[in-house]
Amino acid sequence: MVKKTVLTHPVLSTELRTQILGKNKRRQVGLFGGTFNPVHTGHLVMADQVGNQLGLDKVCFMPDATPPHVDKKSAIAAKYRVEMLAAAISGNPMFDLELCEVERGGISYSYDTVAYLKHKHPDTDYYFIIGADMVNYLPKWHRIDELVKMVQFVGVKRPGYTPRTTYPVLWVDAPKLEITSTAIRKRVANGESIHYLVPDAVAAYIEKEGLYRE
Ligand SMILES: Nc1ncnc2c1ncn2[C@@H]1O[C@H](COP(=O)(O)OP(=O)(O)OP(=O)(O)O)[C@@H](O)[C@H]1O
Ligand SMILES: O=C(O)c1ccc[n+]([C@@H]2O[C@H](COP(=O)([O-])O)[C@@H](O)[C@H]2O)c1
Fold first, then answer.
1. Does domain 25-176 have CATH number 3.30.499.10?
2. Which ligand has the shortest distance to the CA of 36?
């Protein structure tokens, strides 16, 4: 007589197993906060390097409303900065926009933003991408001791800044590009070329809207 085997734990097909495991996998998302006045090639290269080297699902460029530094309050309206970002990231499927700070308005404290995003997306781990200048400034960030427990900070070296920190920063090696938004704005005001320092679509947008002429 053949004994009947009762399967108390049904065996999953490979396809189903992948589907279920895939669904349970936590999303790994890079948050790249900045004023982006305007976004430049330095930003795009560092975001791409971080995303690829850490194997992130997405890197979200997140323009701020009012940056927490006093000296950066004169940035152009968010509408322009967002439109330039949208033009710059189109074509890279890993890149996305996170607009919660410009929608919220007021001073864009990262603690508030990360608390909001973690509540909205409990299945996601966040990696907050910053340049070396910002790494050195971390002790002055709002509620930083709580924030470092909520995200993994990812640092990218930047010409002119020697990183010094006691906070747990994960360093990613990317080509060091001596490009700043300040220099882009100055070049436009002086009538100098910004070709290759920003994507073509961003240069065309700056020209069309007459931004940064003075
Ligand atoms: N060339 C660069 N290399 C590494 N990090 C950079 C570079 N440019 C900007 N960052 C980092 O990107 C983030 C957003 O930068 P932000 O939008 O303020 O650009 P910026 O070039 O520093 O602007 P500005 O010249 O107006 O101060 C910050 O964490 C900053 O440290
Ligand atoms: O939360 C803070 O206190 C804080 C202080 C300085 C900078 N940040 C964030 O760091 C990111 C880069 O800042 P910035 O001024 O270089 O564009 C941007 O998302 C800011 O909101 C945040």
1. no
2. 1
pLDDT, tens only, 94-128: 999 999 999 999 999 999 999 999 999 999 999 99
Which residue has the least CA distance to atom 3 on ligand 2? 141
β-bridge pairing 124-131 and 95-97: unpaired
Is the CB–ligand 2 distance for residue 73 below 6 Å?
A: no
Contact 183, 190 (CB under 8 A): no
Burial letters 194-208, b for 16+ CB under 10 A, else e: beebbbebbbebbee
What rounded mean pLDDT belongs to the chain? 90
- Compute, in angstroms, the gap from residue 43 CA to the centroid of ligand 1: 7
pLDDT of residue 75: 84
Ligand nearest to the CA of 84: 1
What ranges do the domains of the chain cover?
Answer: 25-176
Q: Which residues of the chain have pLDDT under 70?
A: 1-24, 70-73
In this predicted structure, what is the pLDDT of residue 4? 47
155 neighbors 140 (Cβ within 8 angstroms): no
The reply to whether ligand 2 has any atom less than 6 angstroms from the CB of 32 is no
pLDDT of residue 6: 42
Whole-model pTM: value is: 0.91
13 CA to centre of ligand 1 in angstroms = 48
Q: Report the alpha-carbon distance of residue 65 to residue 46 in Å, rounded.
A: 22
